[in-house]
Write a structure and sequence with these properties.
The chain has 313 residues and is an alpha/beta fold. It is built from eleven helices and nine strands. Bound molecules: S-adenosylmethionine.
Length: 313
């Protein structure tokens, strides 16, 4: 039997789905809408008909047809799908002490007002913090490719009057936005991937080479220090051309390649500089305490690096 709380939750979810459909029907395919909200395409169709009857969607709006999609002249981010069917999100560091320190650095780097391209996660924490300091200075295009996380992010945005008025949520790869951006389109980019350089190197390079961010803007990138499982990968390619003690013997091969990548990027594109470099690693917490392994050692999370690039001219 469903209790009152379950009924309320279901009511609220239904409302969220209808809001999403009202705002996205015609721009996102019914199949995609169904996938995000875990309902069938037929159920989406029925909702659309009801929303049309209530005049919440114009009768003239046609469903988004995949075949109508404009051919892209620019490359796609990767060979992956634009959206991820998996509902698992490996990001679990939203409460990390050093993660917050990284957010503080990114916040301070955001100096130019205007439209920011970002990865808000379900909580939109960094966006909230940026807006708290400066509520009228920014709008965001917030991207998320994990279906479950996107649905939660959408709800976080809908529930908050300020977020609702300034964040445009996008379900898909941030690379779709990057490769279709105009020169100077964004004031800043917050590429808080926490992912592997090998996956994102093409789009990072593209943002810089095509001046997607206006003069004075920042490009903030977080990457994990994990290596790639692929046979051919960027770490191998870069490390082949540099000696292992280029920086310091303590810098491992993955971080060495990441550092060399960004240094080469701002050398070739001399209108950019590296303004901040912040390596960080949080500790896993359990019930407010540091989590310990079976052997009694503190469990640490994946080590990360944050780079802030500035477009100077
Ligand atoms: C590290 S989290 C963002 C953290 C957040 N900015 C904060 O301050 O807590 C990255 C989020 O972006 C999503 N994501 C990662 N790479 C993406 C990509 N290329 N396109 C779209 N979403 C992506 C992940 O699923 C995850 O939810």
């Amino acid at each position: 039997m469903t209790n009152m709380t379950d009924t309320n939750k279901e009511f609220s979810r239904n409302k969220q789905i209808n809001i999403y459909i009202t705002e996205h029907f015609g721009r996102v395919s019914n199949a995609n809408i169904g996938e995000i909200w875990n309902i069938t395409e037929q159920a989406v169709y029925c909702r659309v008909e009801r929303l049309k009857a209530k005049k919440l969607i114009k009768k003239s709006v046609k469903p988004f047809a995949v075949t109508n999609r404009k051919l892209k002249a620019k490359p796609k981010a990767n060979k992956r799908d634009s959206v991820r069917r998996s509902k698992k999100n490996s990001y679990s560091n939203e409460d990390g002490v050093y993660k917050q320190e990284a957010r503080n650095i990114m916040k301070q780097a955001i100096k130019v007002h205007g439209k920011i391209l970002s990865l808000p996660f379900s909580t939109c924490e960094l966006e909230k913090q940026i807006l708290a300091d400066n509520p009228n200075a920014f709008t965001f295009v917030g991207c998320e490719y994990e279906s479950d996380t996107f649905a939660k992010m959408f709800q976080t945005i809908q529930k908050d009057e300020i977020l609702k008025s300034v964040i445009e949520p996008y379900y898909g790869e941030i690379g779709d936005k990057i490769f279709n951006a105009k020169e100077n389109e964004y004031s800043n980019l917050i590429l808080d991937y926490c992912g592997i350089l090998d996956t994102f190197s093409k789009e990072i390079k593209y943002t810089v080479e095509n001046n997607i961010v206006g003069v004075g803007g920042a490009i903030c990138v977080t990457l994990s220090k994990r290596n790639s499982a692929k046979e051919e990968n960027i770490f191998k390619k870069i490390n082949k051309n540099i000696p292992s003690n280029l920086f310091d013997d303590s810098v491992g091969e993955t971080e060495r390649a990441i550092r060399a990548f960004f240094m080469a990027l701002v050398t070739v594109n001399s209108n950019y500089s590296i303004e901040e470099f912040f390596p960080y690693q949080d500790i896993k917490m359990e019930n407010g305490k540091e989590a310990l392994s079976k052997t009694g050692n503190i469990i640490r999370k994946t080590p990360m690096v944050l780079f802030v690039l500035r477009r100077n001219k």
